[in-house]
Design goal:
This protein has 12 helices and 2 strands. By secondary structure, it is mostly helical. A two-stranded antiparallel sheet has the order 1-2. Helix 5 packs parallel to helix 10. It is elongated, with a radius of gyration of 51 Å.
Amino acid sequence: MIKRKKIALILALVLVVPVFVASQVSFWQDMTKRVNAADPVLTQAQIDAQAVQDAQDAKDKEAKKLLEDKQDSLLSKIEKEEKAKAKLQQNLGQIQGAVYSTQKTINNAKSSIAETAENISRKEAEVKNLSDKIELQKSMLRALLQQVYYNQSQPILNVVLTKASFADVFSDTDNLLTIEDKIKNLSFEVSKTKSQMEDDKQQLALEKEKHEEILADKVDEKQGLVATQIGVQSDIQEKEATISELQAKLAELQSDLNVLTGKSFNASDINEAISYASKKQGVPKGVLYGFLKRETNLGANTGQCTYADVERVSIAGYKKYGSKYKNSIALLYKRKGLFEGIIKDLKLSKNTKISCTISFASAGPNQGGAMGVAQFMSDIWLAYESRIASATGHAKPDPWNLTDGVMALAIKVRAAGATSSSSSGIRSAVTSYYGIFSQGYYDTVYYWAKNYDKLFN
């Protein structure tokens, strides 16, 4: 019996163990396949490529961190320079106030000097008149004195005998006494009046001298204030130049960051450029569309002349108006030089087309030279360049580039107040952008401001 049980156990083990082992092998094979499917074995080439990618990611991360640190540093410097500029402008305002106050004192002193000089002249005239009067009175006194002398030199008997009565004698005596009194009084008054006038004249001379001293002091003070004012203005200009330089560096840095992070933008058509600029600057799409429609027919006509054409036609026109337009000629050559710098940086031809000189109104020729999609003059373009670069991610903005041109337009009209479709905002922007208010220009922009969404959306 025991023997049979052993045989049965052996048979069971022989049958069960292989089945169990087979199931376990199948289980682990299946698990191995699942693991390999979830985490496949990489080839050496894949491992190397992954290592390179990881290194590049780390390098990009480090570069981004470095650029962001530089950006923060530049922003801090710009803020510091802006504060310094604001303080200088405040000081300049105070100096200008002091200059104004000093000039007012100078004007008052000049007025007082003129008034005192006039009074002195009047006193001198009065003294002269008095002198003439004194000469006349001297003549009268001489006659009176001669009469007195004559009467006094006669013996009393002659006087009595020549008179009809004693009453006449006493009458003549009274007259003589009266004449003597008049002589004394007149001499006293003349002397007193002349002395008073001389005193007045001397006092006026002292006042004039005092005012002249005040004037000299205030003129010196004003010269010092003006010199200080010029110095502060120079410091402000230096700050503005530093801020401009820092902003240009910041724009270039932000452009590098945009490229690194994939944020630079290039529109493929006019509406895409308008949408992007509108979102960035907060200017309605219809407003931008209206300006572009008016300026270059949506970029279709960015100019038909070279700068050589503009120079030739403008100079010929200016010659008709003489030396009055020397400043305009100087501005023409300045803009030409800036234009040549722009196209050199962009590696464009010197024959790149720009707007022509279009008219010779009574006020003189209307200079051509406007560039690209938004028709910016070269000096105006450079003034906006850093802000355009910051907005589009392009290190060197291009006036003929759709994205850059529309962004430049958006920045300029936003600064002029066109942040809505309101009539007043558009009117202000048209006047600023075009240079003068034009009803036709305004009507075009206003139409598209009100109808863009209806027509395109």
